[in-house]
Every structure is written in structure tokens, then in C-alpha cells.
Design brief:
Helices cover 69% and strands 5% of the residues. By secondary structure, the chain is mainly alpha-helical. The protein has a single domain, classed as Non-ribosomal Peptide Synthetase Peptidyl Carrier Protein, Chain A, CATH 1.10.1200.120. A hairpin with a 2-residue loop joins strand 1 and strand 2. The protein starts with a helix and ends with a helix. 1% of the residues are buried.
């Protein structure tokens, strides 16, 4: 059982995934810092400093804090846009993608069967 686990844990895909998670977490911190410290204050300036987190609606004893949800949606949109722009910049820095020619296709299964049939007729 230990040998199977070792073989599983040392597969290239598992190691690549572990590295991707660690790098993704670090990249997430960078993007969060960028959004929290630079982008959100700029958006706040243009929106007049509106903070939605305290908006709520009370019905009897129930309080619906919809402002926190609205603020989360705005934060998500900003983060998604920043990640999109960073990915676009990385893509431009790497240059145009190389276009690969499709591999030449061999005969289809039907063509092979027809060739076998013709060979057997001879």
C-alpha cells in the first residue's frame, strides 16, 4: 500500500498540481493586495466613497444584509478583471502563440477495412 501511495504521490501530474496550488496561493495574495490597496481605492474615488457593506433591509426581526453581498460581487468583479488583465499582459509578453499544423491523418477504419477486403479478393 505504501508503494502504491508513493507511486501516486510522485507522479508528474500530482507534483505539477502541488506546485500550481502553491504558486496560485502566492499569486492570489499579489492580486488581492493589488485590488485591496490600489484598484479598490480608485474605484471608491470614482463612486464617491460608497461602501455597500452596511446596507441592509429589516423585516420584523429578520435583517437582510444585502450590502455585504453587493460588495462581494463588486470585489469579485474587480479581482476577475485584474486577473484577466494580468493574464493578457503575460500572454503579450510571451509573444504570439505558435500555430501547430495538424498531424497528417492516416486512413480511416473503413478505408482500412476496404483495403483488407480488396487484398483478400486477390
Amino acid at each position: 500500500m505504501f508503494q502504491e501511495f508513493k507511486a501516486f504521490a510522485m507522479k508528474g501530474n500530482v507534483i505539477d498540481l502541488a506546485v500550481a496550488v502553491v504558486i496560485g496561493a502566492a499569486f492570489g495574495k499579489i492580486v488581492s493586495s493589488l485590488v485591496d490597496n490600489l484598484i479598490t481605492p480608485l474605484v471608491g474615488m470614482f463612486m464617491g466613497g460608497v461602501d455597500f457593506t452596511n446596507f441592509s433591509y429589516a423585516v420584523g426581526d429578520a435583517v437582510f444584509g444585502y450590502g455585504a453581498f453587493v460588495q462581494s460581487v463588486i470585489d469579485f468583479t474587480i479581482v476577475a478583471f485584474v486577473i484577466f488583465m494580468v493574464i493578457k499582459l503575460i500572454g503579450r509578453a510571451n509573444g504570439p502563440a505558435e500555430i501547430k499544423e495538424p498531424a497528417p491523418q492516416g486512413p480511416t477504419q473503413i478505408e482500412l477495412l476496404m483495403q483488407i477486403r480488396d487484398s483478400l479478393k486477390r
